[in-house]
Every structure is written in structure tokens, then in C-alpha cells.
Design a protein that fits this description.
GO terms for molecular function: ribose-5-phosphate isomerase activity. This protein is of the alpha/beta class. It has six helices and five strands, in the order E-H-E-H-E-H-E-H-E-H-H.
Amino acid sequence: MKIGIGSDHNAFEMKRELFAYIEAKGFEIKDYGCFSPNEVDYPDIAFNVANGVVNQEIDRGILCCGTGIGMAMAANKIPGVRAAQVHDTYSAERAQLSNNAQIITMGSKVIGLEVAKKIVDEYLSVTFEGGNSGRKIDQIMEKEAEYSK
């Protein structure tokens, strides 16, 4: 599984630590920036990771900013993307297991690094279950297609 990761300046250090953590677990990982603690606009980073998912450059994405909110909102503007803001392991599990979220977002000002690592572990350890959840995701994607015309 290939993972993409990105952050704004608020979560630059968290992203660096998570990159090393994920890489040490044996995953192939691509860093979409930012590449310094200098201020950047988070939408550009979110769009790049989301496009990486849509273009099948990566299988899943992890985005970090101050709260995770802006990254989720931006990533979800890319048609075909399901990004979920998570700050606990249960939500991380459900984001993938029930909602087939290709991207999770977290806030470095909301959670610490150790919690973020546990969230990443949970998110990357589960696979979408389909079934009734699949039907619901299909409904969401159909509505997205309707509005994307």
C-alpha cells in the first residue's frame, strides 16, 4: 500500500514524525509537502494529496494541519475523494471500515504525536467492509456525480 502525506506549516513537525513512523513500518510513502515550517496555504497540499488518490498515485492519504478541518474540507472538493477528520482510533477505524475514506485528516493543535501514531496504525490496519456500508457510499458518490455535471 502506498501512502501520501501532507501538512501545512502548523503540522509540519507532526508530518515529519509521521512520515518516518509510516516508512519504518514498511509502507511506501510520498511526501506532498509542506517542506519547511514556513507558512503555506493548506488547500494546495490537500488538493495534491487528493489528486494523488484520484490518479491512483497513492492508495491512501494522511493530511495534517492545525485542526484537520480545513484539510478535510479542501480534500473533499476533489471529485471521487472521501476525506474524514479523525482525532481518535475508533473514528480512524470507522473512516476506513465503514466509510472507505481514502484520506484522513488530523489536527496537530488538537492531538499529540503519540495519539496521531495510534490513529495512523488503526487507519492503515483495516479494509473497507462493503455490504450495507458499500451501498451508502455508492449513494454518496452518485450524488457527487449528479452535482459534478
